[in-house]
Specification:
The protein is of the alpha/beta class and 245 residues long. The protein is built from nine helices and seven strands; from the N terminus they run βαβαβαβαβααβααβα.
């Protein structure tokens, strides 16, 4: 266990058809352990995990945020210092994991993968304009409000530190996709060190991105969270920005 235990968390939900492929592409020599968390898949995800020898943990379905929080808690219980979020559909290229962990060990508390360090790459990788343009616009607003020099705020590849999870009360917040933005806002509010590494996303094969309708709702929800952040910065704190005792 070099410089803290690193655990890859495969986020699975009806991911059986893609699980073998993503597992084969994970650079296993850089991770101390890989686990799978599953919230009531109705396919044979768990049978595939068992065949591959991946320790798995199940719990009632609560949504993306609920599954992620469950996985982070399991990784903490297993001694994780750095927790790598790996989507079971293989949408994000896992070969970036070594670079992300290297950056974490340079003193960062939270690393996000960015598909937009080269702004043209997402289009080459098959991202539709209906997702590409809103992502650029939202990330611009996020950058201005939060003051974080990131090229993207809405990627699903992340590395979480134990310090981040202890500081932010990570079990708070949404059980849906909004959680992925809430944790960034909390990291910023508590002045934790947030960085990014380039990551590729594959949109030419089967993947599980949220629908356009849900994406629109998510966008408005992020504006609300940023409003709460701005209020908290001037002393008007909601429960979301208070630490549990």
């Amino acid at each position: 266990m070099k410089n803290g235990k690193s655990i890859g968390i495969i986020m699975a939900y009806n991911s059986a058809s893609m699980l073998e492929d993503i597992y084969a592409r994970i650079p296993k020599d850089i991770l101390d352990e890989i686990i799978l968390v599953d919230d009531e898949s109705v396919d044979n995800t768990l049978e595939v995990a068992k065949k591959l020898g991946i320790p798995f943990f199940t719990h009632p379905h609560r949504g993306y945020g609920g599954n992620l929080k469950f996985g982070l808690q399991k990784a903490l219980e297993r001694g994780g210092e750095y927790m790598v979020e790996i989507h079971g559909d293989g949408q994000y290229d896992p070969t970036v994991i070594p670079a992300a962990l290297k950056k974490m060990r340079e003193g960062y508390d939270f690393i996000l993968g960015s598909r937009f360090t080269d702004s043209r790459q997402p289009l080459k990788d098959g991202m539709s304009l209906a997702r590409y343009l809103p992502n650029i616009a939202l990330s611009l607003i996020d950058r201005l409000v939060l003051g974080l020099k990131l090229t993207e705020f809405h990627s699903g590849f992340r590395v979480y530190s134990r310090k981040l999870l202890a500081t932010t009360d990570f079990n708070k917040g949404s059980d849906d996709h909004l959680y992925s933005f809430e944790i960034i806002v909390l990291a910023r509010y508590y002045n934790l060190r947030v960085g990014e590494v380039p990551v590729r996303g594959d949109y030419k094969k089967e993947h599980t991105s949220i629908s356009i309708r849900k994406s629109i709702l998510y966008a408005f929800q992020t504006f609300y969270i940023m409003l709460l952040y701005l209020l908290a910065k001037v002393g008007v704190k909601t429960e979301f920005f208070r630490r549990s005792r």
